[in-house]
């Protein structure tokens, strides 16, 4: 499937539908907080499953009680695409179930 980079303006408009996510240069980012390490680690595993389903992998960093994501598409020069926003929406959909805030 061919993907095309989105304009910065288009990224900003689409991020309005994803509270907590923000544009950071040529990527979109989000950090989630949790009540402890185990729910944060469980969220990372769930994110890994989503990434495998989409065949699209983000930078995911696990802290003691945080999970941070940085998402862009390397195949289009590290720009943001619809695929990145799809991944963000899927992650956002599971976050509350893991106790993310």
What structural class do you assign from the helix and strand content?
Answer: alpha+beta
Total of helices: 3
For the sheet with most strands, the description reads:
4 strands, antiparallel
- Global mean pLDDT: 96
Through-space gap between termini: 33 Å
Helical content, roughly?
A: 25-40%
The whole-angstrom Rg is: 13 Å
| Largest beta sheet: strand ordering | 1-2-4-3
Q: Which percent band covers the strand fraction? A: 15-25%
Q: How would the global form be characterised? A: globular
What is the tally of beta strands? 4
Instruction: Tell me the quaternary state.
Output: single chain
> H/E order of the elements?
HEEHEEH
Describe the model.
- β1 (22-23) and β2 form a beta hairpin.
- This protein has a 4-stranded antiparallel β-sheet with strand order 1-2-4-3.
- It is built from 3 helices and 4 strands, in the order αββαββα.
- Helices cover 40% and strands 18% of the residues.
- The chain is globular, with a radius of gyration of 13 Å.
- It is an alpha+beta fold.
- α2 (37-54) runs antiparallel to α3 (82-95).
Summarize the structure.
This protein is an alpha+beta fold and about 100 residues long. Helix content is about 40%, strand content about 20%. The radius of gyration is 13 Å and the shape is globular.
Features:
101 residues; alpha+beta; 4-stranded antiparallel β-sheet; 3 helices
Describe the protein's topology.
Layout: H1 8-15, E1 22-23, E2 28-33, H2 37-54, E3 59-62, E4 66-71, H3 82-95
Helix pairs in contact: 2-3
């Amino acid at each position: 499937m061919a993907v095309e980079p989105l304009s910065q303006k288009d990224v900003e408009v689409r991020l309005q539908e994803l509270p907590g996510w923000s544009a950071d240069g040529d990527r979109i980012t989000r950090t989630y907080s949790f009540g402890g390490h185990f729910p944060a680690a469980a969220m990372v595993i769930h994110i890994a499953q989503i990434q495998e389903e989409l065949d699209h992998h983000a930078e995911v960093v696990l802290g003691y009680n945080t999970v941070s994501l940085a998402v862009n598409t390397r195949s289009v020069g590290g720009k943001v695409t619809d695929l990145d926003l799809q991944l963000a929406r899927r992650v956002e959909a599971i976050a509350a179930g893991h106790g993310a805030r």
